[in-house]
Design a protein that fits this description.
The protein is of the alpha+beta class. It has helices at 4-9, 11-20, 27-63, 67-103, 141-148, 153-160, 169-187, 204-209, 226-251, 284-288, 346-363, 410-415, 439-449, 461-464; strands at 123-128, 151-152, 166-167, 194-195, 201-202, 222-223, 277-279, 295-297, 303-312, 331-341, 368-372, 384-392, 397-406, 418-420, 426-428, 430-438, 457-458, 472-473. The chain has an eight-stranded mixed β-sheet with strand order 1-11-12-13-16-10-9-4. Strands 5-7-6 form a three-stranded antiparallel β-sheet. The structure holds one RNA strand.
Length: 476
RNA sequence: GGAGAGGUGGCUGAGCGGUUGAAAGCACCGCACUCGAAAUGCGGCAUACGGGCAACCGUAUCGGGGGUUCGAAUCCCUCCCUCUCCGCCA
Protein backbone atom coordinates (compact mmCIF):
# COMPACT_ATOMS: atom_id res chain seq x y z
CA UNK A 1 0.00 0.00 0.00
CA UNK A 2 1.37 3.35 -0.99
CA UNK A 3 1.44 6.50 1.06
CA UNK A 4 -0.94 8.93 -0.63
CA UNK A 5 1.18 11.82 0.64
CA UNK A 6 4.15 10.47 -1.27
CA UNK A 7 2.03 10.30 -4.41
CA UNK A 8 0.74 13.82 -3.79
CA UNK A 9 4.29 15.14 -3.44
CA UNK A 10 5.87 13.06 -6.23
CA UNK A 11 3.19 12.31 -8.81
CA UNK A 12 5.58 12.18 -11.76
CA UNK A 13 8.12 9.93 -10.04
CA UNK A 14 5.25 7.66 -9.01
CA UNK A 15 3.88 7.34 -12.54
CA UNK A 16 7.36 6.83 -13.98
CA UNK A 17 7.94 3.95 -11.58
CA UNK A 18 4.60 2.40 -12.54
CA UNK A 19 5.55 2.76 -16.19
CA UNK A 20 8.66 0.67 -15.52
CA UNK A 21 6.29 -2.11 -14.51
CA UNK A 22 4.38 -1.59 -17.74
CA UNK A 23 1.44 0.11 -16.01
CA UNK A 24 -0.60 3.18 -16.92
CA UNK A 25 -0.25 6.37 -14.85
CA UNK A 26 -2.42 6.54 -11.73
CA UNK A 27 -1.26 9.63 -9.83
CA UNK A 28 -3.80 12.02 -11.28
CA UNK A 29 -6.75 9.78 -10.51
CA UNK A 30 -5.50 9.00 -7.00
CA UNK A 31 -4.90 12.65 -6.18
CA UNK A 32 -8.42 13.50 -7.33
CA UNK A 33 -9.81 10.79 -5.04
CA UNK A 34 -7.69 12.13 -2.22
CA UNK A 35 -8.88 15.68 -2.73
CA UNK A 36 -12.48 14.57 -2.59
CA UNK A 37 -11.74 12.58 0.54
CA UNK A 38 -10.07 15.50 2.29
CA UNK A 39 -12.87 17.88 1.36
CA UNK A 40 -15.37 15.46 2.89
CA UNK A 41 -13.28 15.09 6.05
CA UNK A 42 -13.06 18.84 6.47
CA UNK A 43 -16.80 19.23 6.00
CA UNK A 44 -17.61 16.51 8.51
CA UNK A 45 -15.09 17.64 11.11
CA UNK A 46 -16.25 21.23 10.97
CA UNK A 47 -19.75 20.05 11.77
CA UNK A 48 -18.49 17.79 14.55
CA UNK A 49 -16.45 20.61 16.06
CA UNK A 50 -19.51 22.84 16.18
CA UNK A 51 -21.62 20.08 17.70
CA UNK A 52 -19.05 19.40 20.40
CA UNK A 53 -18.65 23.08 21.22
CA UNK A 54 -22.41 23.56 21.39
CA UNK A 55 -22.77 20.53 23.67
CA UNK A 56 -20.29 22.05 26.06
CA UNK A 57 -22.15 25.34 25.96
CA UNK A 58 -25.38 23.50 26.72
CA UNK A 59 -23.77 21.96 29.76
CA UNK A 60 -22.68 25.37 30.97
CA UNK A 61 -25.99 27.04 30.20
CA UNK A 62 -27.83 24.36 32.15
CA UNK A 63 -25.45 24.79 35.04
CA UNK A 64 -26.19 28.54 35.00
CA UNK A 65 -29.94 27.86 34.73
CA UNK A 66 -30.03 29.78 31.45
CA UNK A 67 -32.85 27.72 29.93
CA UNK A 68 -33.37 30.21 27.11
CA UNK A 69 -29.83 29.86 25.85
CA UNK A 70 -29.87 26.07 26.24
CA UNK A 71 -32.99 25.83 24.14
CA UNK A 72 -31.45 27.83 21.32
CA UNK A 73 -28.33 25.70 21.31
CA UNK A 74 -30.38 22.55 21.44
CA UNK A 75 -32.20 23.43 18.26
CA UNK A 76 -28.93 24.37 16.58
CA UNK A 77 -27.48 20.94 17.37
CA UNK A 78 -30.68 19.26 16.24
CA UNK A 79 -30.38 20.97 12.86
CA UNK A 80 -26.72 20.01 12.62
CA UNK A 81 -27.54 16.39 13.34
CA UNK A 82 -29.96 16.33 10.45
CA UNK A 83 -27.14 16.87 7.98
CA UNK A 84 -24.34 14.94 9.67
CA UNK A 85 -25.25 11.35 8.78
CA UNK A 86 -25.06 12.23 5.09
CA UNK A 87 -21.61 13.78 5.58
CA UNK A 88 -20.45 10.68 7.41
CA UNK A 89 -21.55 8.41 4.59
CA UNK A 90 -19.90 10.63 2.00
CA UNK A 91 -16.65 10.75 3.95
CA UNK A 92 -16.61 6.97 4.36
CA UNK A 93 -17.40 6.42 0.70
CA UNK A 94 -14.67 8.80 -0.43
CA UNK A 95 -12.07 7.27 1.90
CA UNK A 96 -12.98 3.76 0.81
CA UNK A 97 -12.74 4.71 -2.85
CA UNK A 98 -9.19 5.93 -2.30
CA UNK A 99 -8.21 2.90 -0.18
CA UNK A 100 -9.62 0.47 -2.72
CA UNK A 101 -7.75 2.17 -5.55
CA UNK A 102 -4.53 2.23 -3.55
CA UNK A 103 -4.86 -1.46 -2.61
CA UNK A 104 -4.81 -2.43 -6.29
CA UNK A 105 -1.50 -0.76 -7.09
CA UNK A 106 1.74 -2.76 -6.86
CA UNK A 107 4.94 -1.70 -5.15
CA UNK A 108 7.46 0.46 -7.01
CA UNK A 109 10.73 -1.10 -8.21
CA UNK A 110 14.02 0.12 -6.75
CA UNK A 111 16.25 2.09 -9.13
CA UNK A 112 18.73 -0.74 -9.64
CA UNK A 113 16.08 -3.24 -10.75
CA UNK A 114 16.53 -3.98 -14.48
CA UNK A 115 13.71 -2.85 -16.75
CA UNK A 116 11.97 -5.57 -18.67
CA UNK A 117 8.72 -7.15 -19.80
CA UNK A 118 8.85 -10.74 -18.58
CA UNK A 119 11.14 -13.49 -17.33
CA UNK A 120 13.21 -13.33 -20.52
CA UNK A 121 14.51 -9.93 -19.37
CA UNK A 122 15.72 -11.13 -15.97
CA UNK A 123 19.42 -10.61 -15.43
CA UNK A 124 21.76 -13.35 -14.26
CA UNK A 125 23.55 -12.26 -11.10
CA UNK A 126 25.95 -15.19 -10.56
CA UNK A 127 26.27 -18.98 -10.77
CA UNK A 128 27.45 -21.59 -8.34
CA UNK A 129 28.64 -25.13 -9.01
CA UNK A 130 28.59 -26.85 -12.39
CA UNK A 131 26.52 -29.25 -14.42
CA UNK A 132 27.46 -32.83 -13.75
CA UNK A 133 28.24 -35.34 -16.45
CA UNK A 134 26.16 -38.46 -16.54
CA UNK A 135 27.18 -41.65 -18.35
CA UNK A 136 23.49 -42.16 -19.15
CA UNK A 137 20.53 -39.99 -20.15
CA UNK A 138 19.35 -38.39 -16.88
CA UNK A 139 15.69 -38.98 -16.11
CA UNK A 140 13.10 -36.59 -14.74
CA UNK A 141 12.16 -36.88 -11.08
CA UNK A 142 8.74 -38.43 -11.70
CA UNK A 143 10.21 -41.13 -13.91
CA UNK A 144 12.66 -41.97 -11.16
CA UNK A 145 10.09 -41.75 -8.37
CA UNK A 146 7.49 -43.85 -10.15
CA UNK A 147 10.06 -46.48 -11.10
CA UNK A 148 11.09 -46.68 -7.45
CA UNK A 149 7.44 -47.14 -6.53
CA UNK A 150 7.72 -44.23 -4.08
CA UNK A 151 5.96 -41.42 -5.95
CA UNK A 152 2.34 -42.00 -6.90
CA UNK A 153 0.34 -39.41 -8.82
CA UNK A 154 -2.52 -41.74 -9.81
CA UNK A 155 -3.49 -42.57 -6.26
CA UNK A 156 -3.17 -38.91 -5.27
CA UNK A 157 -5.58 -37.99 -8.08
CA UNK A 158 -8.12 -40.48 -6.70
CA UNK A 159 -7.89 -38.84 -3.30
CA UNK A 160 -7.63 -35.19 -4.22
CA UNK A 161 -7.74 -34.63 -7.98
CA UNK A 162 -4.98 -33.33 -10.21
CA UNK A 163 -1.78 -31.68 -8.94
CA UNK A 164 -1.29 -33.78 -5.82
CA UNK A 165 1.16 -36.54 -5.05
CA UNK A 166 1.57 -39.42 -2.62
CA UNK A 167 5.17 -40.03 -1.53
CA UNK A 168 6.35 -43.19 0.17
CA UNK A 169 9.32 -44.78 1.85
CA UNK A 170 12.70 -43.27 1.05
CA UNK A 171 11.31 -40.43 -1.07
CA UNK A 172 8.81 -39.46 1.64
CA UNK A 173 11.59 -39.55 4.17
CA UNK A 174 13.86 -37.54 1.88
CA UNK A 175 11.27 -34.78 1.81
CA UNK A 176 11.04 -34.77 5.59
CA UNK A 177 14.83 -34.81 5.86
CA UNK A 178 15.13 -31.78 3.58
CA UNK A 179 12.73 -29.71 5.68
CA UNK A 180 14.48 -30.66 8.92
CA UNK A 181 17.89 -29.97 7.45
CA UNK A 182 16.92 -26.52 6.18
CA UNK A 183 15.34 -25.51 9.48
CA UNK A 184 18.40 -26.67 11.39
CA UNK A 185 20.71 -24.62 9.17
CA UNK A 186 18.62 -21.47 9.45
CA UNK A 187 18.01 -21.66 13.18
CA UNK A 188 21.70 -22.07 14.03
CA UNK A 189 24.74 -19.77 13.74
CA UNK A 190 25.33 -17.72 11.75
CA UNK A 191 21.85 -17.54 10.15
CA UNK A 192 20.08 -17.30 13.49
CA UNK A 193 16.44 -17.31 12.43
CA UNK A 194 13.87 -18.12 15.08
CA UNK A 195 11.78 -21.19 14.34
CA UNK A 196 8.03 -20.62 14.26
CA UNK A 197 5.12 -23.00 13.80
CA UNK A 198 2.39 -20.68 12.48
CA UNK A 199 -1.30 -21.23 11.70
CA UNK A 200 -1.96 -22.49 8.17
CA UNK A 201 -5.45 -21.00 8.07
CA UNK A 202 -5.70 -17.20 8.19
CA UNK A 203 -8.27 -14.41 8.07
CA UNK A 204 -8.90 -11.89 5.29
CA UNK A 205 -6.97 -9.10 6.94
CA UNK A 206 -3.91 -11.31 7.23
CA UNK A 207 -3.99 -12.08 3.51
CA UNK A 208 -4.50 -8.39 2.85
CA UNK A 209 -1.44 -7.52 4.93
CA UNK A 210 0.98 -9.34 2.67
CA UNK A 211 -1.05 -8.33 -0.44
CA UNK A 212 -2.47 -11.70 -1.52
CA UNK A 213 -5.77 -9.85 -1.19
CA UNK A 214 -7.67 -8.22 -2.72
CA UNK A 215 -6.06 -8.78 -6.10
CA UNK A 216 -5.04 -12.43 -6.05
CA UNK A 217 -8.01 -14.17 -4.49
CA UNK A 218 -8.31 -16.58 -7.45
CA UNK A 219 -4.87 -18.01 -6.72
CA UNK A 220 -5.89 -19.08 -3.22
CA UNK A 221 -8.00 -21.71 -1.52
CA UNK A 222 -10.57 -20.37 0.90
CA UNK A 223 -13.69 -21.55 2.64
CA UNK A 224 -16.69 -20.33 4.55
CA UNK A 225 -18.46 -22.14 7.38
CA UNK A 226 -21.58 -23.97 6.15
CA UNK A 227 -24.03 -21.69 7.91
CA UNK A 228 -22.53 -18.63 6.19
CA UNK A 229 -22.86 -20.28 2.78
CA UNK A 230 -26.45 -21.29 3.52
CA UNK A 231 -27.29 -17.76 4.59
CA UNK A 232 -25.67 -16.38 1.45
CA UNK A 233 -27.63 -18.80 -0.71
CA UNK A 234 -30.84 -17.83 1.05
CA UNK A 235 -30.22 -14.11 0.48
CA UNK A 236 -29.25 -14.63 -3.15
CA UNK A 237 -32.38 -16.64 -3.86
CA UNK A 238 -34.48 -14.00 -2.16
CA UNK A 239 -32.98 -11.25 -4.28
CA UNK A 240 -33.27 -13.18 -7.53
CA UNK A 241 -36.83 -14.14 -6.69
CA UNK A 242 -37.74 -10.53 -5.96
CA UNK A 243 -36.14 -9.29 -9.17
CA UNK A 244 -37.93 -11.95 -11.17
CA UNK A 245 -41.22 -11.10 -9.53
CA UNK A 246 -40.78 -7.37 -10.15
CA UNK A 247 -39.91 -8.02 -13.74
CA UNK A 248 -42.84 -10.28 -14.44
CA UNK A 249 -45.20 -7.88 -12.70
CA UNK A 250 -43.86 -5.07 -14.83
CA UNK A 251 -43.74 -6.66 -18.27
CA UNK A 252 -45.34 -10.08 -18.09
CA UNK A 253 -43.74 -13.45 -18.58
CA UNK A 254 -42.94 -12.97 -22.28
CA UNK A 255 -40.23 -10.42 -21.66
CA UNK A 256 -38.41 -12.41 -18.99
CA UNK A 257 -35.85 -13.99 -21.28
CA UNK A 258 -34.47 -10.63 -22.33
CA UNK A 259 -33.35 -9.94 -18.81
CA UNK A 260 -31.48 -13.24 -18.43
CA UNK A 261 -28.07 -12.93 -16.83
CA UNK A 262 -28.68 -9.54 -15.31
CA UNK A 263 -29.65 -10.78 -11.86
CA UNK A 264 -27.27 -9.37 -9.31
CA UNK A 265 -25.41 -11.36 -6.71
CA UNK A 266 -26.56 -10.85 -3.13
CA UNK A 267 -25.11 -8.23 -0.84
CA UNK A 268 -22.33 -10.59 0.17
CA UNK A 269 -19.09 -8.73 0.70
CA UNK A 270 -16.34 -10.80 -0.86
CA UNK A 271 -13.65 -8.31 0.08
CA UNK A 272 -13.63 -8.53 3.85
CA UNK A 273 -15.50 -11.34 5.45
CA UNK A 274 -14.80 -12.21 9.07
CA UNK A 275 -16.19 -15.73 8.66
CA UNK A 276 -13.84 -16.73 5.91
CA UNK A 277 -10.50 -18.55 6.24
CA UNK A 278 -7.72 -18.94 3.69
CA UNK A 279 -5.17 -21.72 3.34
CA UNK A 280 -1.80 -20.03 3.30
CA UNK A 281 -0.08 -20.00 -0.12
CA UNK A 282 3.25 -19.49 1.70
CA UNK A 283 4.41 -19.11 5.29
CA UNK A 284 5.33 -15.54 4.33
CA UNK A 285 1.72 -14.71 5.13
CA UNK A 286 1.56 -15.72 8.81
CA UNK A 287 5.24 -14.99 9.50
CA UNK A 288 5.15 -11.43 8.18
CA UNK A 289 1.83 -10.77 9.88
CA UNK A 290 3.38 -11.75 13.21
CA UNK A 291 4.11 -8.03 13.66
CA UNK A 292 0.82 -6.66 12.30
CA UNK A 293 -0.75 -3.82 14.30
CA UNK A 294 2.19 -3.60 16.64
CA UNK A 295 4.95 -1.17 17.49
CA UNK A 296 8.33 -2.86 17.78
CA UNK A 297 11.29 -1.54 19.65
CA UNK A 298 14.24 -0.69 17.39
CA UNK A 299 16.43 -2.96 19.53
CA UNK A 300 14.30 -5.95 18.43
CA UNK A 301 15.20 -5.38 14.77
CA UNK A 302 16.08 -7.05 12.58
CA UNK A 303 13.67 -9.81 13.58
CA UNK A 304 14.30 -13.04 11.68
CA UNK A 305 11.81 -15.92 11.65
CA UNK A 306 11.56 -19.16 9.72
CA UNK A 307 9.00 -21.91 9.34
CA UNK A 308 8.58 -25.14 7.44
CA UNK A 309 4.96 -25.40 6.35
CA UNK A 310 2.70 -26.85 3.72
CA UNK A 311 1.65 -24.25 1.14
CA UNK A 312 -1.57 -24.30 -0.85
CA UNK A 313 -2.10 -22.71 -4.24
CA UNK A 314 -5.03 -22.90 -6.62
CA UNK A 315 -2.73 -22.43 -9.64
CA UNK A 316 -5.67 -20.89 -11.44
CA UNK A 317 -3.59 -19.20 -14.12
CA UNK A 318 -1.38 -22.22 -14.76
CA UNK A 319 -3.77 -24.58 -16.52
CA UNK A 320 -1.79 -26.99 -18.68
CA UNK A 321 1.55 -25.78 -17.31
CA UNK A 322 3.93 -28.29 -15.68
CA UNK A 323 1.20 -30.88 -15.47
CA UNK A 324 3.60 -33.78 -15.11
CA UNK A 325 5.43 -34.38 -11.86
CA UNK A 326 5.86 -32.40 -8.68
CA UNK A 327 6.97 -29.05 -10.11
CA UNK A 328 3.57 -27.38 -9.75
CA UNK A 329 1.27 -28.82 -7.09
CA UNK A 330 -1.75 -27.54 -5.17
CA UNK A 331 0.08 -28.52 -2.00
CA UNK A 332 3.81 -28.43 -1.34
CA UNK A 333 6.21 -27.94 1.54
CA UNK A 334 8.42 -24.89 1.83
CA UNK A 335 10.84 -23.44 4.33
CA UNK A 336 10.30 -19.72 4.46
CA UNK A 337 12.53 -16.92 5.75
CA UNK A 338 11.05 -13.60 6.90
CA UNK A 339 12.88 -10.55 8.21
CA UNK A 340 11.42 -7.45 9.78
CA UNK A 341 13.88 -4.54 9.70
CA UNK A 342 14.30 -0.79 9.91
CA UNK A 343 14.34 1.12 6.60
CA UNK A 344 18.11 1.46 6.92
CA UNK A 345 18.67 -2.28 7.31
CA UNK A 346 16.49 -3.73 4.59
CA UNK A 347 18.86 -3.59 1.62
CA UNK A 348 21.68 -5.38 3.45
CA UNK A 349 19.22 -7.81 4.91
CA UNK A 350 18.09 -8.70 1.39
CA UNK A 351 21.63 -9.74 0.42
CA UNK A 352 21.99 -11.63 3.69
CA UNK A 353 18.73 -13.50 3.13
CA UNK A 354 19.81 -14.50 -0.38
CA UNK A 355 23.05 -15.93 0.96
CA UNK A 356 21.17 -17.87 3.66
CA UNK A 357 19.02 -19.48 0.97
CA UNK A 358 22.09 -20.16 -1.19
CA UNK A 359 23.79 -21.87 1.73
CA UNK A 360 21.20 -24.66 1.58
CA UNK A 361 21.97 -25.40 -2.07
CA UNK A 362 25.71 -25.21 -1.43
CA UNK A 363 25.50 -27.76 1.36
CA UNK A 364 23.42 -30.03 -0.85
CA UNK A 365 25.99 -29.50 -3.58
CA UNK A 366 23.38 -28.49 -6.14
CA UNK A 367 24.19 -26.39 -9.18
CA UNK A 368 22.26 -23.13 -9.38
CA UNK A 369 22.20 -19.56 -10.59
CA UNK A 370 20.81 -16.37 -9.11
CA UNK A 371 18.85 -13.94 -11.26
CA UNK A 372 17.62 -10.45 -10.54
CA UNK A 373 14.02 -10.22 -11.65
CA UNK A 374 13.22 -7.44 -14.09
CA UNK A 375 10.48 -4.91 -13.38
CA UNK A 376 7.93 -6.84 -15.44
CA UNK A 377 8.46 -10.16 -13.64
CA UNK A 378 8.43 -9.00 -10.02
CA UNK A 379 5.68 -9.83 -7.58
CA UNK A 380 3.05 -7.31 -6.56
CA UNK A 381 4.53 -6.39 -3.15
CA UNK A 382 8.19 -6.46 -4.12
CA UNK A 383 10.69 -3.64 -4.62
CA UNK A 384 13.40 -6.01 -5.75
CA UNK A 385 13.56 -9.78 -6.09
CA UNK A 386 16.31 -12.37 -6.51
CA UNK A 387 15.30 -15.79 -7.76
CA UNK A 388 17.50 -18.80 -7.23
CA UNK A 389 17.17 -21.30 -10.04
CA UNK A 390 18.44 -24.82 -9.52
CA UNK A 391 19.72 -26.97 -12.36
CA UNK A 392 17.54 -29.99 -13.12
CA UNK A 393 19.50 -32.47 -15.26
CA UNK A 394 16.38 -34.50 -16.06
CA UNK A 395 14.53 -31.46 -17.36
CA UNK A 396 17.77 -30.03 -18.71
CA UNK A 397 16.95 -26.54 -17.44
CA UNK A 398 17.13 -24.14 -14.51
CA UNK A 399 13.95 -23.98 -12.40
CA UNK A 400 13.02 -21.54 -9.64
CA UNK A 401 13.64 -22.98 -6.17
CA UNK A 402 13.70 -19.77 -4.14
CA UNK A 403 12.59 -16.18 -4.44
CA UNK A 404 13.88 -13.48 -2.07
CA UNK A 405 12.11 -10.14 -2.03
CA UNK A 406 12.47 -6.88 -0.21
CA UNK A 407 9.12 -5.11 0.13
CA UNK A 408 10.11 -1.83 1.80
CA UNK A 409 7.21 -0.49 3.88
CA UNK A 410 4.60 -1.65 1.36
CA UNK A 411 3.34 -4.57 3.46
CA UNK A 412 4.00 -2.75 6.73
CA UNK A 413 1.47 -0.08 5.72
CA UNK A 414 -1.14 -2.70 4.93
CA UNK A 415 -0.48 -4.41 8.26
CA UNK A 416 0.14 -1.23 10.22
CA UNK A 417 3.39 -2.67 11.52
CA UNK A 418 5.69 -0.05 13.01
CA UNK A 419 8.69 0.43 15.26
CA UNK A 420 9.87 3.12 17.62
CA UNK A 421 13.25 4.43 16.53
CA UNK A 422 16.03 5.52 18.86
CA UNK A 423 14.99 9.14 18.32
CA UNK A 424 11.53 8.15 19.67
CA UNK A 425 9.74 8.44 16.32
CA UNK A 426 7.28 5.81 15.17
CA UNK A 427 7.87 4.61 11.61
CA UNK A 428 6.77 1.69 9.46
CA UNK A 429 9.08 -1.33 9.43
CA UNK A 430 10.45 -2.88 6.28
CA UNK A 431 9.62 -6.50 5.45
CA UNK A 432 11.48 -9.16 3.49
CA UNK A 433 10.63 -12.71 2.59
CA UNK A 434 12.37 -15.51 0.82
CA UNK A 435 12.20 -19.25 0.36
CA UNK A 436 14.95 -21.03 2.15
CA UNK A 437 14.13 -23.09 0.06
CA UNK A 438 11.11 -24.77 -1.53
CA UNK A 439 11.24 -28.32 -0.15
CA UNK A 440 9.23 -29.96 -2.94
CA UNK A 441 11.47 -28.53 -5.60
CA UNK A 442 14.60 -29.32 -3.59
CA UNK A 443 13.40 -32.92 -3.53
CA UNK A 444 13.14 -32.84 -7.31
CA UNK A 445 16.60 -31.31 -7.63
CA UNK A 446 18.19 -33.88 -5.32
CA UNK A 447 16.53 -36.78 -7.14
CA UNK A 448 17.51 -35.57 -10.59
CA UNK A 449 21.01 -34.52 -9.59
CA UNK A 450 21.87 -37.55 -7.49
CA UNK A 451 20.28 -40.19 -9.73
CA UNK A 452 22.37 -43.21 -10.65
CA UNK A 453 22.42 -45.44 -13.71
CA UNK A 454 20.23 -48.09 -12.05
CA UNK A 455 17.55 -45.57 -11.14
CA UNK A 456 18.52 -45.34 -7.45
CA UNK A 457 19.16 -42.00 -5.73
CA UNK A 458 22.33 -41.30 -3.75
CA UNK A 459 21.51 -39.43 -0.54
CA UNK A 460 23.54 -36.18 -0.28
CA UNK A 461 25.98 -36.28 2.59
CA UNK A 462 24.33 -33.38 4.36
CA UNK A 463 21.09 -35.37 4.57
CA UNK A 464 22.35 -38.79 5.58
CA UNK A 465 22.14 -37.96 9.27
CA UNK A 466 18.47 -37.09 8.75
CA UNK A 467 17.84 -40.41 6.96
CA UNK A 468 19.12 -42.70 9.68
CA UNK A 469 22.43 -43.07 7.86
CA UNK A 470 20.77 -44.19 4.61
CA UNK A 471 23.13 -43.63 1.68
CA UNK A 472 20.97 -44.71 -1.25
CA UNK A 473 17.25 -44.73 -2.00
CA UNK A 474 16.47 -47.85 -3.98
CA UNK A 475 13.50 -49.86 -5.10
CA UNK A 476 12.24 -52.06 -2.27
C1' G B 1 -21.24 -26.53 22.93
C1' G B 2 -23.13 -24.84 28.29
C1' A B 3 -22.34 -21.47 32.78
C1' G B 4 -19.75 -17.37 34.81
C1' A B 5 -15.89 -13.23 34.89
C1' G B 6 -13.47 -9.69 32.14
C1' G B 7 -11.35 -6.50 27.84
C1' U B 8 -9.11 1.32 29.61
C1' G B 9 -2.35 4.39 27.30
C1' G B 10 4.36 0.51 26.61
C1' C B 11 2.77 -2.16 31.45
C1' U B 12 -0.23 -2.19 36.30
C1' G B 13 -4.68 0.14 37.35
C1' A B 14 -8.71 4.21 38.70
C1' G B 15 -12.94 6.27 36.44
C1' C B 16 -19.15 4.26 35.71
C1' G B 17 -23.46 10.59 31.68
C1' G B 18 -20.65 17.02 31.10
C1' U B 19 -12.70 20.96 31.15
C1' U B 20 -11.49 12.66 31.28
C1' G B 21 -7.24 11.80 25.91
C1' A B 22 -8.33 9.73 30.37
C1' A B 23 -6.14 9.81 38.06
C1' A B 24 -2.10 7.15 40.29
C1' G B 25 2.13 3.94 40.02
C1' C B 26 5.89 1.57 36.92
C1' A B 27 8.75 2.04 32.51
C1' C B 28 10.91 5.67 29.21
C1' C B 29 13.18 10.73 27.87
C1' G B 30 15.21 15.66 29.50
C1' C B 31 17.11 18.72 33.45
C1' A B 32 19.04 19.47 38.51
C1' C B 33 22.11 17.25 42.41
C1' U B 34 27.07 14.05 41.80
C1' C B 35 34.00 13.30 40.12
C1' G B 36 30.64 9.40 38.08
C1' A B 37 26.58 6.25 39.37
C1' A B 38 22.57 5.07 42.62
C1' A B 39 18.92 7.53 45.39
C1' U B 40 16.11 12.04 45.23
C1' G B 41 13.67 16.40 43.10
C1' C B 42 11.50 19.04 38.78
C1' G B 43 9.57 18.64 33.90
C1' G B 44 8.09 15.80 29.63
C1' C B 45 5.93 11.40 27.55
C1' A B 46 -0.52 7.95 22.95
C1' U B 47 -1.88 7.06 17.81
C1' A B 48 -4.12 8.29 13.25
C1' C B 49 -6.30 11.75 10.09
C1' G B 50 -7.48 16.86 8.60
C1' G B 51 -6.31 22.36 8.57
C1' G B 52 -1.99 25.84 8.97
C1' C B 53 4.55 28.52 6.39
C1' A B 54 4.70 27.86 11.57
C1' A B 55 3.37 28.37 16.69
C1' C B 56 -0.65 25.66 16.92
C1' C B 57 -5.82 24.22 16.10
C1' G B 58 -9.61 20.56 15.02
C1' U B 59 -11.63 15.46 14.57
C1' A B 60 -11.56 10.37 15.85
C1' U B 61 -9.89 6.46 19.05
C1' C B 62 -10.97 3.49 26.48
C1' G B 63 -11.81 -4.72 22.14
C1' G B 64 -15.04 -4.06 16.96
C1' G B 65 -19.81 -2.41 15.06
C1' G B 66 -24.59 -0.23 15.98
C1' G B 67 -28.04 2.54 19.24
C1' U B 68 -29.94 6.09 23.28
C1' U B 69 -28.55 11.38 24.49
C1' C B 70 -27.61 18.28 23.33
C1' G B 71 -23.25 15.35 25.33
C1' A B 72 -20.92 8.26 26.23
C1' A B 73 -14.80 5.18 28.56
C1' U B 74 -19.37 5.55 31.47
C1' C B 75 -26.36 3.45 29.63
C1' C B 76 -28.56 -0.29 25.80
C1' C B 77 -27.94 -4.03 21.66
C1' U B 78 -24.68 -7.08 18.94
C1' C B 79 -20.18 -9.36 17.47
C1' C B 80 -15.07 -10.65 18.63
C1' C B 81 -11.29 -11.97 22.04
C1' U B 82 -9.19 -13.52 26.96
C1' C B 83 -9.75 -16.14 31.67
C1' U B 84 -12.34 -19.91 35.12
C1' C B 85 -15.59 -24.22 35.53
C1' C B 86 -18.39 -28.23 32.93
C1' G B 87 -19.15 -31.19 28.46
C1' C B 88 -17.03 -33.05 23.77
C1' C B 89 -12.67 -34.06 20.92
C1' A B 90 -7.05 -34.88 17.98
Amino acid sequence: MHDIRFIRDNPDAFDRALARRGLAPEAKRLIALDELRRAKILELETAQARRNAASKEIGEAKKNKDEEKAKGLLSEVAALKETMPKMEVEEKTASKALDDALAQIPNLPLDEVPDGKDEKDNVEHHRCGAKRNYAFAPKQHFELGEALGQMDFETAAKLSGARFVVLKKGVARLERALGQFMLDVHTSEPHNYTEVAPPLLVLDQTMFGTAQLPKFAEDQFHFFPDEVLREHARQTIEIVWKQALDFVTERGMAGARAKEGTFEKGEFDYRVNPDRRWLIPTAEVPLTNLVRESIMDEAQLPMRVTACTPCFRAEAGAAGKDTRGMIRQHQFTKVELVSITTPEQSKDEHERMLSCAEEILKRLDLHYRVVTLCTGDMGFASQKTYDIEVWLPGQNMFREISSCSVCGDFQARRMNARYRSKDRNVRHVHTLNGSGVAVGRALIAVMETYQQADGSIAVPEALQGYMGGLKTIEKQ
